[in-house]
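Entry details:
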Amino acid sequence: MTEIHAYEGAPEAEFRDYVALLKPRVMSLVVFTAFVGLWVAPGDMHPFVAFCAVLFIALGGGASGALNMWYDADIDAVMRRTRSRPVPSGRVTGGEALGLGLVLSGLSVMMLGLAANWFAAGLLAFTIFFYAVIYTIWLKRWTPQNIVIGGAAGAFPPIIGWACATGGVGIEPLLMFALIFFWTPPHFWALALFMKEDYHNAGVPMLTVTHGRPATRRHIFAYTLVLAPFAIWLGLTSVGGPIYLAVAIVANILFIHGGWRILRRDEQAAVADGYRVEKQVFRLSLYYLFVHFLALLVQGWAGAW
């Protein structure tokens, strides 16, 4: 990791630059999946306590993002899609990103423990550590399985939300974890298919760099097949039902079909049309996770009524 300092003549940091350090797009996924995990969990939480719990989980997710941007500033400066981030662009110093990440980490864990319970707070602390240290500092630069193992960090929020409401875990949040965990590799590998040069130039051992695009295509299709049974299984638990099952069946048929299209793709044709199919499947993957958790939310509301 190379320290990035604000350079002379760089635009002065604005409030939105510090917000950008928290990776608000990723945080929105953390908030949504954690809220769904909390909402569908058995038992009742006071609405204000539930709001505070989700807020502190979001802050923990933002802290992870800031720590990631601090350590990955040298990589971000090379890649086209990340070079305008606050640290590599020089608007925010690496020290500021590190300080913000550490402060928010401690604050979010402490406040979640006080607002909900210390078991949930411990899970949040482990999630921050896993993303910032295990994934960002170790796995990302060391192994092509970085996004596979590292995907666990993004899969913990629904478990944390469930733990806030119940003080424990069950098969339902573990299946929510599995849903996100097995979705993460095909989601990012679809992106890596048309962003391979960025990862190569940055020295990140993404699967497309170490094993090539044909192997990546096979891995994507295999993971869509592994993912589907967990998505369906979740619909057969206490949080599932006909609404969720209908959505899950359709979404997984579409995702498997997308993986099949990628698998059967000729590389020359892909280059010729600018990786059109790969970009379509990547966009589909963005909706895949959202519709599953939205269906859980709607199923929960339907059950409550």
Q: What stands out?
A: The first helix runs from residue 15 to 21. The CA atoms of residues 80 and 141 lie 18 Å apart. The chain has a mean pLDDT of 91. Residues 170-305 form one domain.
